[in-house]
Amino acid sequence: MAASGGGSGSGREESAKSAVADQISQSVQSTSNILHLMLQSSPSHSQLMKLPKNLLAKTSTIKNTEMILQQMPQVISALDEHVENGLHSVPHLNTVVQLLSNMRSSQLKSLSSAQPTQQEPQVLEQHSRRTNSL
């Protein structure tokens, strides 16, 4: 989870950015090397010559992917921080749940004890009518 110390989140973010940039760079270099090898050894040279044009058509998608990958460390860090905050809130939530439960049970107790007292005047009135009629 996210460390609460100042600056450690940005260090981790920079490390993640660097790792992603390295992976992208390695992928591009590998793709370039494969294309050069294929151009040198392939009999279907004309087919391979079309490949860079196809890749060029996908430039905007590649740039969007690059932007998303650059934002990923920040998104992961923010999610990590939210999860950490949520975990710190669990004891407070347990306290609130316990308080609400106690309030509910005390309300139920007061309601159950209030019902006989409301019935007592009626019982007394009925009893006095019976006694008066005798």
Counting helices, strands and paired strands, the structural category is mainly alpha
Q: What is the mean predicted local confidence, pLDDT?
A: 75
Whole-angstrom Rg? 37 Å
Q: Show unreliable segments.
A: 1-6
Question: What's the overall geometry?
Answer: rod-shaped
| Approximate helicity band | over 70%
Order of helices and strands: HHH
Q: Per DSSP, what share of the residues sits in E-state strands of 2 or more residues?
A: under 5%
Q: Specify the biggest β-sheet.
A: none
Question: N- to C-terminal separation?
Answer: 82 Å
Number of strands: 0
Number of helices: 3
List keywords for this structure.
BLOC-1-related complex subunit 7, mainly alpha, 3 helices, lysosome, single chain, disordered N terminus, BORCS7, membrane
Explained architecture:
There is one protein chain. The protein starts with 7 loop residues before the first helix and ends with a helix. The chain is rod-shaped. The protein is 91% helix and 0% strand. The protein has 134 residues and is mainly α. The longest helix is centred in the C-terminal third of the chain and has 75 residues, at 59-133. This is BLOC-1-related complex subunit 7. InterPro entries: BORCS7. Residues 1-10 have a biased composition (Gly residues).
Q: What is the gist of this entry?
A:
Residues 1-10 have a biased composition (Gly residues). Residues 108-121 have a biased composition (Polar residues). The protein has 134 residues and is mainly alpha-helical.
